[in-house]
Amino acid sequence: ELGLVKESLYEKKLLAKISPHAMRILPMMIPLYSSKEKFVMRAGLKIADLISLGRNEGITEDLNIPDSLLLNKSQTIAEDGNIKREKLVGSIVYYDYANYNPERHTTEFIFSARKFGAKSFNYAKVTRIEKEASGTFLTTLIDGLTKKESVLRSKIVVNASGPYADFVEKIAGVHSEKILV
Fold it and tell me: Residue 90 forms beta bridges with which residues?
């Protein structure tokens, strides 16, 4: 899934650029218990490092993501004294972004979009999405609190429904090969 990895890296870089206050660097240590495991993980993370070349361009310096590191057994134990030591050969340290408050971050995006004329709804159920011949969309939704039905016309529809994304795509008549699990 190299394309998915590349897309994910691009999106994280974009978030770090436009909202650095919401992102932190998260180191992850993966213990290795065989030479084969060490070789496979090292190769995989080197490929990830290559795919993500340029990941720090335009990013504030305190959010620059370093390349992955290979730690030997003693360095690994020094990092985590409680790690299982039997057959331990070392570890890989991989860095990624973490969004420590995704709810607040999402709310910031919603408020920003509203400032530019977007409409947002909470506790709303989408019942229909139709694309008109003109290319615009008609979206019908029901407010979960007031039970009021609204029909919205828009140039685009953003499916930000999280675990309900497949359901919303089905309503829109979009067929996807990938199903959320």
Answer: 32, 72
CB burial of residue 18 (10 Å; 0-12, 13-18, 19+) = exposed
Structure-block tokens of residue 180? 């959320």
Instruction: For residue 101, count CB atoms less than 10 angstroms from its CB and return exposed for 0-12, middle for 13-18, buried for 19 or more.
Output: exposed
- 84-110 per-position pLDDT tens digit: 999 999 999 999 999 888 889 889 988
Could you tell me the two tokens for 142? 């029901």
For 4-18, write each residue's pLDDT tens digit: 878 888 888 898 998
* Identity of residue 34: S
Structure tokens at 44: 């995989």
What SS3 state is found at 46?
A: helix
Whether the predicted model's global pTM rises above the 0.70 cut? no
| Burial classification of residue 181, based on how many CB atoms lie within 10 Å of its CB (0-12 exposed, 13-18 middle, 19 or more buried) | exposed
* Contact status, residue 90 vs residue 32, Cβ threshold 8 Å: yes
Helix then strand count (H, E) for the chain reads 5, 6
Query: In which residue are the tokens 């229909």 written?
Result: 128
Kindly provide the residue ranges of all beta strands, DSSP E only, lying in the chain, ordered along the sequence.
23-32, 69-72, 90-99, 124-131, 137-143, 149-154
Eight-class DSSP state of 105:
H
